[in-house]
Specification:
Blueprint lengths: L4 E2 L3 E5 L6 E5 L7 E2 L6 E2 L6 E2 L3 H10 L4 E6 L4 H16 L5 E6 L4 H6 L7 E6 L2 E7 L4 H8 L4
Helix pairs in contact: 2-4
Bound molecules: zinc ion.
Zinc ion binds next to loops.
């Protein structure tokens, strides 16, 4: 499970120094954020973020200053389970350059329909609210990195 939550304005994460929850606005991702309480620098998100609604998905993909890698998955999908730890690696390795998000297509079927996800897992990259890359099939971390690298 992700320790990072998301709402329609930004990512919510706890300061590793003092524990205060901070919001990283989508518009500012890729820049340096400081904790509102202790003023320590906050680390860039380095784990996949679970998207909970269409609204949050739209807010993130349209406003994020960083490109967003989205994994469309489902709980019943075997290959998706193999991709999950690979995606965790990619999120850590590309921290500060990409936002890595996960969409459960069982919970959010409207997103799967909108982006023509006909097989899962499917990975897609969004830049400035536009889907710029789309690929079905499980990939190991190095292949996922190669897939996103052109959009960095
Ligand atoms: Zn703090």
């Amino acid at each position: 499970m992700s320790n990072i939550e998301s709402d329609n304005r930004g990512l919510l994460l706890a300061c590793p120094n003092c524990g205060k929850r901070n919001r990283l606005k989508y518009e500012g991702l890729g820049q340096t954020f400081r904790c509102a309480q202790c003023k320590n620098e906050l680390p860039s998100p380095r784990e996949p973020i679970d998207i909970k609604s269409d609204l949050v998905f739209d807010a993130l993909t349209s406003r994020s200053t960083l490109p967003v890698l989205v994994d469309f998955w489902a709980p019943w999908c075997g290959p998706c389970k193999m991709v999950a730890p690979e995606l965790v690696k990619v999120a850590a390795e590309t921290s500060g350059h990409f936002v890595v998000a996960k969409v459960n297509t069982e919970q959010l079927p409207s997103l799967a329909r909108r982006f023509r996800v006909t097989a899962i897992p499917t990975m897609a990259v969004f830049k400035g609210g536009i889907e710029v890359a789309h690929q079905a099939g499980a990939m190991p971390a190095p292949a996922i990195r190669k897939f996103v690298e052109p959009w960095r």
